[in-house]
Amino acid sequence: MPLKAENISKTFIRNGKNTNSFYAVEETDLLLENGTVTAVVGRSGSGKTTLLNMLSGLLTPTSGKVFYDGEDVYSFDDDVRSKLRNKSVGVIPQGQTGLKSLTVYENVLLPAEMYGSVSEEIKERADELLKAVGIGSLKDEYPNELSGGELRRMAIARALVNKPSFVLADEPTGDLDDENTLAVLKLLRSVADQGAAVLIVTHEKDTLTFADKVYKMDAGKLSEVKKEE
Amino acid sequence: MKFIFALARKNLIKKPYRTLAMILLAALAAFTVFAGSIVVLSLNNGLKSYGERLGADVMVVPSEARTSGSFDDILLQGITGNYYITEAQLNRALSGVEGIEKVSTQFYLASVTASCCSSKLQIIGFDPETDFTVQPWIRERYSESLGDGDIIVGADITLNSSMTLQFYNVKCKIVARLDKTGTGLDTAVYTTIETIRQMAENAVILEHLTEGYDVSTSVSAAMIKVADGFDAQSVAGKINGRKGVKATTAQSYVSGVASGLNNVAGAIGAMVAVVWLLAAALIVVSFVMVCNERMKEFAVLRAMGASSSMNAKLLLTEIFAVTAIGAVTGVIFSAIVTFPLTSLIKSALSLPYLLPSFWAIALTVLGAIAATLVAGAVSALFAVARLNRSDAGLMLREDA
Ligand SMILES: Nc1ncnc2c1ncn2[C@@H]1O[C@H](COP(=O)(O)OP(=O)(O)OP(=O)(O)O)[C@@H](O)[C@H]1O
Ligand SMILES: [Mg+2]
Q1: Which chain A residues are closer than 8 Å to B396 by Cβ?
Q2: Among A174, A187, B95, B248, which residue's beta carbon has the most beta carbons within 10 A?
Q3: Whose CA is nearest to atom 14 of ligand 1?
Q4: What CATH code is carried by the domain that includes residue A85?
């Protein structure tokens, strides 16, 4: 069940001296295969988040198509596309994304609750995930009692709770120390090894050692970087 | 939906100050709408019952009577300037006029200063046999029939321990005191036409009343109830064509009071509208502001798989819950304030004021709640429009 992007691009309007549109992401193909970790590196503002949002079904591309296992994601209406995202995509957005009125545990269970009831199995899974990212003891705290790195790890556990086939992580290790970075990367690697297609947007060199493929984003242009041995 | 309700509940509980502020806004709107409506309705109701209290559709007085058509003076205070007409003359004037269902005569007399009161009183004598204007509401206080020398007094007349008053050497027994009405009725004394004629005869002897009237056969006015299918105005018109009398309709008096009342009701209505609009605008602005602040939160939900309609439902649920709680609280507080203050409002407005019926109040409760929910619904429309304006991917970037 690969995630495939064909010819996708995104233009935005920039209000400057003369209003003109520019490519945040230029036309590009991308294939995220099951069982692999793909890394995207690039400078700030180069278009990484824009690419990831298009892949997760949250941002309609200006051109091109996104396929989940052969199904054209943007051909569905919002309800179907949202449910599809809930079932098959684990999104770890950039920045702090804890929902403040829910505890850490409730945050993690949220994707599972959206379209159904939470089984014992899922609860156990949530506990395991929280332990795996090292915040098992914080499960009953509220987000404003957590550090930036702890919140980031909560978001990772949350993205994985529905056992998604695709994991799209936008700088998942941004605020983390070396030890936790390693733990998170190992976790994402193991998710890929269990059959998911994982995309990690990163600045971190560490990530590259866990990745099967590395792309570089440069002013909207995506190009593959050959991994040197 | 269960998920949405649960999340909405947690969102409201975890932001107690925000939620409370919203509830207060909604409560303010409901409070004013309810209190204002109750006052306006009570004024209207007061006028209606006042009109009913007048009882008669047409009133006939001697043509010399000092009244310039003021029904109030005559009916409520009995001021005809001591002009009288014989019953025979009156009967002649009314005979053959179509549309008269009931006639009852009354006799008015102004007292000389009595021990009870600083000013003159108006004594109103009615004929218990035919009366249909005074007794129906006197019965609210006194259900037996008035005997010789019995009087019923208005609320402003001080009672003494002996419960008696003397007018023109006629000793009278006070059998009841009427409720306060805020009108000339409060300084009136009611008695039977028999009793008042005794007073009048003494008054003639005492030279307080000009001679020339045969008190025992004279009356001050006749009250007329117009039969169904006839118009009071045209009946009055026909009577006015007869000699020695003049007729006026209750309607012309009631509409006089009504215009005064309309001014007050209009002012209160405008005030309610302004406060409601202000509260509604505040509700809309604050909900939209809160929604702006929460764009990131809604975007995160989208990223986790919520559809935009789920987000809209979440927002609607929160807004509905807050405005509904606010509306109910506001109405309850409004009722707590408005009803106990009824007599205060009454005297402050010095207009007929009577609480509407239970069902009218129940309807007003629903109306005030509905008006508040409308404000909430409008703000929800704005908020949802704001929410769905941009792609979730863009919302996610906000404050990222
Ligand atoms: N909604 C928008 N309207 C206009 N321009 C936008 C919008 N979203 C992004 N951009 C622009 O598109 C470009 C790419 O943005 P994007 O967020 O994808 O960068 P990024 O690579 O994720 O950066 P960072 O590493 O800082 O997160 C930037 O120049 C940004 O200013
Ligand atoms: Mg980014």
Answers
A1: 53, 58, 93-94
A2: B248
A3: A47
A4: 3.40.50.300
